[in-house]
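Technical note accompanying the year-one report. For the benefit of new consortium partners, we illustrate the data format agreed upon in the data management plan: each record pairs a sequence with a structure-token string. No post-processing was applied to the example shown here.
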Amino acid sequence: MGRLTVLALRGVIVALLAGSVFVQAVMVPLLGRDLDEADTELAYPPAAFLVTVILGIVTAQVVLVCVWRLVTMARRGTVFSHAAFRYVHIVIGAFVAAALLMFMLGVLLAPGEAVAPGVVLLIGGAVMAILGVALIVLVLRMLLAQAVARDVEATRMRAELAEVI
């Protein structure tokens, strides 16, 4: 990876992490206050919504940290190793957890008259999109596995060639 690409990606990751911390520290408490003060007909307590939102933000932060680590490995030329799988597995798990949390948000919003049914349907579509991203990362993991296997094979063949020479 080029140095400029790595710097740009790290800048984006830092901005996203800072934004997510701002949302957790400022926006979520404001949302909690609004939910407490609002005269809505929510079927569940506001705390259930806040916990779901906070956990959703945490899943995004976990993905960003893992991508940071993978970018670091790519910059060092060590991404085609078994150590990279740990971060890829965590990313896949975080996307699945985010999809489950989004589904839970839809379940929390579905009963009652507080939200239109179309909003719940849109949340269901977002669940499918998040699961689709998890599947894409799974396919990329399979490609990484093939690349690691080929790299190991190439190293073995170089060692055999060195012995012959």
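Partners are asked to follow this layout when depositing records. The chain has a mean pLDDT of 91.
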